[in-house]
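User: What would this chain look like folded?
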Amino acid sequence: MHIDLLPTAESIVPAELAGCTAVVFDVLRATSTIVTAIAHGCRGVVTVVDTAEAQEVAARLAGENTPVLLAGERGGEKIPGFPHGNSPLEYPPEVVGGKVLVLTTSNGTRALNATIEGAHTVLVGSLLNARAVAQKACRLGRDVTLVCAGTQGKFSLEDTLAAGMVVLEMVEMMAPGWLCSNHQPPSLDLADLAVAALHLALAYRENPRRAFNRSHHGRKLFSMGLAADLDWCASLNTFEVVPVVKAAKKENGYPIIEKC
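Assistant: Here's the prediction, encoded as structure tokens.
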């Protein structure tokens, strides 16, 4: 099994994802929010790139008597006029249970939608569900591409850390003892960026929250008073849920993310 890593959404070439399992990460905060919402009983999440389109999709769903929540963020701030933002703490079971979440964000929804165009299967990853994602990817048995959304086209420490945690879990499941070896494990073929992410995970596995203190976007969110979001998103293996994109099951023309 080959494991590759794309460092930003701008690195995505849909045709190069054909046949693979892709895992998308936007740890601060889109994919953490999606994982939390699905774990708390959300019926599904529709990711939309454009703000106006998100409003249109939500309005159409509401017109069809679908319980819907409209949520969006730009630059870390809730979009004016949107009832909800991109904080995972906004979506406890009593808020999100049984509803469809229509979400648009600065980086994560763009990475997700670009990945959907090419990959065979698209999973939603975060620190919150890293082990469950690794288990699912191993069971699927295809080559894996870890897609990091990044921040405004640049590398982000937190997304690569979460991708590395998934690599670490896969290595420990499929090639126990390899971390003490100087050779590639026979069952896994890791690209160089996947190896780099793995060693980032080894550095922060005991305290992922510390990485947020050192990342550009983590420091920005902290300065905005969102420390509670950072604490939540840094929690490792909190959920066993693995959201998957149901490309064949669309809401108003958009693929919907549901629980596996």
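The chain is about 40% helix and 20% strand. If you want, I can go into more detail on any region.
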